[in-house]
Amino acid sequence: MKSAFLTEVFSSWQGEGGSVPGSCFGKRQIFVRFSGCNLALGDFGTNGCIWCDSHFSKMRSPKLIAIEQAPGLKNFTQVQNPINIQDLFQIVRNLTTKDLHSISFTGGEPLLQENFVIEFGEYLRANGYSLYLETNGALSPENVVHLFDFCCGDIKDRTARAAKNWEQLAEKEILFLAHFARAGKSCFGKVVICAETSPNDIQWICNYIDCNLTNRERFPLTFQIVTPINKEIKVPSWTLVAKCCEIAIHYLGKENVAISVQMHKLLGIL
What we know:
Layout: E1 3-4, E2 6-13, E3 28-34, E4 64-68, E5 76-80, E6 83-84, H1 85-95, E7 100-106, H2 114-126, E8 131-135, E9 150-154, H3 166-182, E10 186-193, H4 199-212, E11 221-225, H5 238-252, E12 257-260, H6 263-267
Parallel strand pairs: 2-4, 3-7, 7-8, 8-9, 9-10, 10-11, 11-12
Antiparallel strand pairs: 1-6, 2-3, 4-5
Helix pairs in contact: 3-4, 4-5
């Protein structure tokens, strides 16, 4: 039986995504957070995104997992890594509520542990759960697309500093989401914007989608206002937010563009 290295498992509400099709914003989820991120570990020549809020992105195998003992109580216990499928399933069952929408595979980057994601995902689906993937989109979707009902994929502009060549990474992320859309999955792209975001970069992203994807492969886009985790990161002006939306709407249509904030952080929930 396969096992995985996680950092935490808890119940909360999805706080990202806004109102675009494919978003699960405001829906109750159980979050299964995987350790390690290929971008933070240097796959594209940097130390990952400057606004990353996952403390274990640079750790492939932490010793302990924080497990919420009851939904919404923020009462955690710790168990040893790695964890096997049966033990993790029992934790998920314990956190399952009547209003549960889906299980969120998040990180770090879940697909770094693809074999476990496949086996555990198939086990969850066999037991009636819907699955949501939150991913940086820099790895292959081929083996996992059948598992997920919903997908939020990052598309990073140059201000994320996630790659020495940001266009190369953004192209890979766009094509990842196109694969999900082509398979008929509910998916959307998330672009984190900050005060330094360039409208020209947003135009590059939207133009690439418009020129290189078929109608079946296109997907909605949400602009997420950055959460300033340090003094270096500043929120964008509303003039800049409006400009980014205007550009995206030109290429994607107004029904496929929205803004988002990290609602869970604003409300102080998990």
